[in-house]
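[Meeting: bench + compute handoff]

Bench side (C.D.) handed over the final construct sequence. Compute side (W.E.) agreed to return the predicted structure before the next meeting so the bench team could plan truncations. Sequence as handed over:
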Amino acid sequence: MFNKTKNINYRIILILGLLIIFAGTISSSSAANTIYVNNATGNDDYDGTSATVTGPTVGPKATIQNGTDTVEADGTVNVADGIYKEAVVINKNLTLLGQSQTGTIIDGYNTVRSLTINSGTLTIINFTIQNGISINGGGISNMGNLTINDTTITDNTATGTGDVYGGGIYNEGTLTVTNSIISNNTATGTNNAYGGGIYNSGILIINNNVITNNSATTTDGYADGGGISNEFGTLTINNSIITNNIASTSGSGGDVYGGGISHSFIGYLTINNSIISNNTATGSGGDVYGGGISNWGAFITINNSTITENTATGSGGDVYGGGISNNGDLTIIDTTLKDNTATSTGDVYGGGIYNMGDLTITKSTITNNTATGTNNAYGGGIYNQNYGTLTANFNRIVNNSPNAIYIDPQSVNADMEYNWWGYNNPQFETLIQGTSPTRWLYMTMTADPAILNNGETSQIIVSFNNYTSDGTNYTPLPEPLAGHIPDGTPVNFQTDLGTIGSKSINKTTVNGIATATLIASELAGTAHINATTDSQPIYVNLLINPKSSVYLNITPDKINPIVGDTVTYRFKVGNNGPDPAENVVLTYKIPDGLVFVSANDNIGNKWIYDPNTRTITWNLGTVPVGDPDLWVSFLYTAAGEYKIDPLLSTTTYDPDLNANTQSITVHAETATTSGVNAATTNTVE
């Protein structure tokens, strides 16, 4: 019996032990899905399952590498603020979550690359990646699937004796960067340098980022993409700013491509709602292509973006495209290209755009771009090279130098219909070198209504939804519109009478139309309204008829008359304007029971009384803004109810005439039948 009980106890102990071991295994496995790293308090001998030290082996890891090696696949490594001088290598799926973007730093200490993703899917959030160095991807190299959120990638370098790629990031895999900053990274070497900020030959999506102050520089080879170099890859840029990047060569260096972005070799680039500004492509040896963007043999679509203040400059070769150089397939929609510059000691082609490929641009603004050269300069706005196909419709092309567009005589095709050139009757011999358009947009202005009364409003409508072939006669564009001048085209309205918010107001077009509302708030007369867009003023006159607001107040000198009383009534006629009331007449037919006694006024006694009709007529003539008076006396000869209700008339527009005319109802009593005198009721009718 004892032995049986002992065996049972042993079995129970064994089962309990196994359960404890199993529970510990489950707990350890679960904990390994989340690892904590803190280089201030951690130790790589700790298990990483706690953000704080809670036991001899329980606490955070000290290094990110150990944390990523320890965490399970698809797990999360939480990294506390600190500077982690490491070369982190990732080979599995996980998430790196920093405590803060500015405080959690992976630092390559100018010796190693900071982060390498050889395979797997990595999401990195709230980090700074800095001071990394390598031939390919000084800060980050990605061969897997990488998502970067809320991270700063700065002061990294790609350098070496051969070609170098991606000062900040090198990507051959799939990379999405969101809400991040890529700044002050450099790709530099004696041979070719690609992508100061990012080099991409995979799939790259840029969302809500700032890519700034990056550079691709070389002394002997090509400099390709100060901000981004995209070769063979697919690149999408949304809601981002790419600014102050530079691609440059020195000495006897080779060609330069894309101060902001270089895109080449069958790749696809889409830019949406972004700004490409203040980027520079500069060289002293070879040719220079695209201060803002260079496209070589690939496909680009640009939507609703701004390409501005980019520069392509050279001293050793020719320069092509201050804003964009295109030798591929380029489509531009709803985009502004302004204030770009191409300059060189050699020949210069295209201050805004150089095109040797297929260029389609619509509903875009091309303005204030400049091409200048010591030798020859062609096409301030667009230069279309031989074999280039240009389709430009419904654009605003103004103030480019030395001219708007240069069409090479060998160009395959140039369709430039339905654009706005800054004038209703542009001088194409100075604007365009080459084939001129046969139809262009025409600016008109109308007022609705064209005649109104003072105090009313009129819609002033400027429309560019017309075309002309001679600068004088125009035809409305057919509905529905195939296109229109770019939204946001500025129109300045001015008036010398009334207000449009003030005497002058700036508006912009929507769907080819800009509107302002004139308020006739001053005196009557003719309002001379003009509207100006670019170098084209147009005019419309609007007739404002006078408006008055005549009123009548009645005041008796006795409010409770009895039979036998003579009561004098003061008729005060006034005018609230804004204009004088013309030919104002007050009439009042005296009812039976009242007898006219006398009258006088303060404007020269312009009243008359007709005893036959028992009517008093007061011809006031012109009533300015003021209050003339008429005093009329009546004798009450009979008891009863009497209404003192004169009528006013005027030849001036008065929408409220007689609505503001006071009338009085009087109840006259006989002295012998009422102990209380008559009651008077004042009403406004």
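W.E. noted at the follow-up: The longest helix spans residues 2-31. C.D. will use this when planning the next construct.
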